[in-house]
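Aim 2 progress update. The chain analyzed this quarter is reproduced below.
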Amino acid sequence: MKPIIGITTFESEQKGFHTVNSYYINSIFDAGGIPINIPIIYDEEDYDYYLNLVDGILFTGGLDISPLSYDENPLREVNDISAIRDKYEFGLFIKAYERKLPILGICRGHQLANIALGGSLYQDIGVQIPNTLGHSPIGISKDELYHSIDIKKDSKLYSIFETERIFVNSNHHQAIKKLGNNLSISAFSEDKIIEAIEATDERFLIGVQFHPECLAKRYSQFLNLFKAFILAAKSK
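Predicted structure tokens:
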């Protein structure tokens, strides 16, 4: 049977629906899984009902996570947050982590995993880290490769891509600062921004700062990340 993968969504108040980019859904289908969208959950008792349905969970990209979640007040550059989404995704992550469900975090999802496990973020790379390269280009297609990352050879990520260097897209102004508990760094950009993390134990927990779902159609190597995720969910 194909594993069922839960995908986190966000609520669009202006348009009145829960939504997620179709790139995530298509990547799960293409990798051999069955995606189901998980709406914003307001009642904490309902987390388990959704987690009982899925074999793995994908935490998607989107809004900044409130710096209050790692005990900081926001810089001026943080101006698009949702306490409702933060609460929902942190609650869902902790429950999924406790169950050792396979987890894939993309961009915001990568940062969320780090914060949930005790880490923190640079609220704005350009303001807080001197001499960084580009990470949030304007007007470039989501399926364009933008900069390189270096992958550690002893990482799970290396076993997926089978190379120490790849080129990725980029769409973020924040990045991991303090690493969370029970996590290791598996990839850096040239300017030492953390581009990927993973669990230090045998569970499948991988976070990437780039957007492989937008690249998977054009560059098949990025679908391998989703295939590895689906395989872990199938083996759960």
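The chain has one domain: 4-234. The longest strand covers residues 183-189. These observations will guide the mutagenesis experiments scheduled for the next reporting period.
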